[in-house]
Amino acid sequence: METYNQRRPDDWHVHFRQDDTLRQVVPYTARQFARALVMPNTKPAIRNAADVTRYKELTWNYSGQGFQPLMTVKLFDDSTLQEVMRAHRIAGVIAAKAYPFGVTTNADDGITDFTAPRLNQVFAAMEEHRIMLCVHGEKPDAYCLDREEKFLEVLCRITHRHPLLKIVLEHITTLAAIQFVKVTPNVAATITLHHLFLTTDDIIGGKLRPHNFCMPVAKRPEDRDALREVVFSGNKKFFFGSDSAPHLKGDKECAEGCAGIFSAPVAMPLLVEFFEEHHRLEMLENFTATFGAQWYELPRNESSRLTLIKRPWIVPQEIRGVVPFYAGKEVQWSIA
Amino acid sequence: METYNQRRPDDWHVHFRQDDTLRQVVPYTARQFARALVMPNTKPAIRNAADVTRYKELTWNYSGQGFQPLMTVKLFDDSTLQEVMRAHRIAGVIAAKAYPFGVTTNADDGITDFTAPRLNQVFAAMEEHRIMLCVHGEKPDAYCLDREEKFLEVLCRITHRHPLLKIVLEHITTLAAIQFVKVTPNVAATITLHHLFLTTDDIIGGKLRPHNFCMPVAKRPEDRDALREVVFSGNKKFFFGSDSAPHLKGDKECAEGCAGIFSAPVAMPLLVEFFEEHHRLEMLENFTATFGAQWYELPRNESSRLTLIKRPWIVPQEIRGVVPFYAGKEVQWSIA
Questions:
Q1: What are the residues whose beta carbons fall under 8 Å from the beta carbon of A81, sequence distance 6 or more?
Q2: In principle, which of A180, A221, A251, B237 could form an S-S bond with B188, CB 3.0–4.6 Å?
């Protein structure tokens, strides 16, 4: 049987949530990835060393051996230098995540002003101690499809002020963001699985499809094609972050549906299929297992590999109450 | 108590559906409007004189006195000249409605080629006999937010070939469509209630809101503002058509939600509130009771008037299984 084998990949952006959901979704990531950067916009949020330690332990309980959660803290208007530095030194946080106010799930306590002095003290300390700044790059008060592009102005100001602060612009969706990242030395970007597949048409172009709805919203076909192109080109500033974000079915299929796509169960199988289909399978290992580690200045995963076999399966309509990405469709590759 | 009184309005675009829904939704239109142009994309579709007569009778059964349904037939690739002319002469149809293939609810049997010879024979006969062509103006294979603008090229070809064929471009959503209608003598347009309120942000800009989802999808704030401006300017080529389109709650809040907004229950109350808020209440009667009749070359409603009183009410969360537009919100005006 045909197989595909590579260095065990990393997921540089994942939402594990909390409580039951945490327990149920962690294994889907852990069985494919060596490491995952775990987002801190849980309820309650992860903001200091104690939160991180507690959450990391829970994650470990559910992941089994051989998986390493990489931890982040969430930034607030009133986050302090001390808080972030302690989370880094004591709890091993490698990144702090900034959500603009109100921009997505659990961001109602997000940053209102990226130029505030207190926040800039935090940025300065992160710059000095090489702690990554991860940013959900959308300007919340702009028209939904313009938000990412409009945020680039904000990002530009941060990079000018903190030229050595390393930044990851998360889950980018536009040609504008790609161009910005290409020319800005201290900014890299994650790209999700679903943004390589979807355009706005897959959400509101026919039937309304809540399970394709996430923030940032998928954009135009030209934007999606630009994402594909940059990923296939092997540009090392663009690496994989699934942004896998489970919501219970009832929280998606309702009058006010939540943003987020649960892609963990199909992540590597669908990536292999997608890269193979586009005759770029040789680029997948760098995208998922090299470029991210390099940007984060971490060693690549040397000891462990991942094997997939070409055995088709139908993605379940529902996994533990959550409708996964690609539900009901056939995927050609299975995790061995 | 403050009142508002005008010539009884017309709704130049409404979906009554069939069966139980027909019975349940007709009264909401009939209690406000003197006449409504009833769309033919029912299941099964209304395509000939017999269909029209049967459907008109049903509508009358449910509407009570004082309401006149104005009838349409749906055009197909294989519609014949004879079929359309008989529907006009025998069943009194005043318009034929063209849906591009696959563009919205029940359009899977829509027109695949607007330049086909058979269809152009139909258009020529409609031109000669002054039967209106109503068009859902979207190019189905374009990106969802470009579809209306891209369809203008198709419309342009129709108007060149049939310069005397009167056309209504239905439920327009873009500045591009407004500009096209303004400069094209034989094309007018309907504007809905909800497109005066919504932008894409109200569908995918925060939570996903299926009850704000319709085709054409609401566009950018600049587009919505242009719709408001043209309506407030009193341009007689732009008149009211609600496109009220009920779907059962379960067909909206699901994995593949239907397009359509049920606005009939709030139509005139919310229009009065909206025009009043914008200090343009004096423009509402023309928009709802004059310009449409003029374009269709029908007399205005002389005998009947509509009165609203300023008495706030909360729009119900659900009306006969359907979530109406503005559900749960307060409207200032009530129908007397």
A1: A121, A122, A125
A2: B237
The DSSP code for B216 is S
C-beta of residue B115 within 8 angstroms of C-beta of residue B157: yes
Instruction: Please write down the HEC assignment for all residues of chain A.
Output: CCEEEEECCEEEEECCCCHHHHHHHHHHHHCCCCEEEECCCCCCCCCCHHHHHHHHHHHHHHHCCCCEEEEEEECCCCCCHHHHHHHHHCCCCCEEEECECCCCCCCCCCECCCCCHHHHHHHHHHHHCCCEEEECCCCCCCCHHHHHHHHHHHHHHHHHHCCCCCEEECCCCCHHHHHHHHHCCCEEEEECCHHHHCCCHHHHCCCECHHHCCCCCCCCHHHHHHHHHHHHCCCCCEEECCCECCCCHHHHCCCCECCCEECHHHHHHHHHHHHHHCCCHHHHHHHHHCHHHHHCCCCCCCCCEEEEECCCEECCCCECCECECCCCCEECCEEC
Q: Per the CB < 8 Å rule, is B255 touching A254?
A: no
- Give tens-digit pLDDT for B281-330: 999 999 999 999 999 999 999 989 999 999 999 999 999 999 999 999 99
Tell me the per-residue pLDDT of A14-45, one tens digit each, with 9 for 90 and over.
Answer: 999 999 999 999 999 999 999 999 999 999 99
Active site residues of B: 243
SS3 B187: strand
pTM: 0.97
SS3 B97: strand
Contact B204 A204 (CB under 8 A): yes
Give the type of residue at A241: G
| Buried-state track A244-272, b at ≥16 Cβ within 10 A, e below 16 | bbbbbbebbbbbebbbbbbbbbbbbbbbb
Cβ atoms within 10 Å, residue B183:
8
Check: complex ipTM more than 0.90: yes
Q: Confirm if B231 and B196 have CB atoms less than 8 A apart.
A: yes
Chain B: which residues have CB within 8 Å of chain A?
Answer: 102, 143-145, 199-201, 203-211, 213, 217, 220-221, 252-259, 323, 327
Calpha distance B325→B267 (Å, rounded)? 9
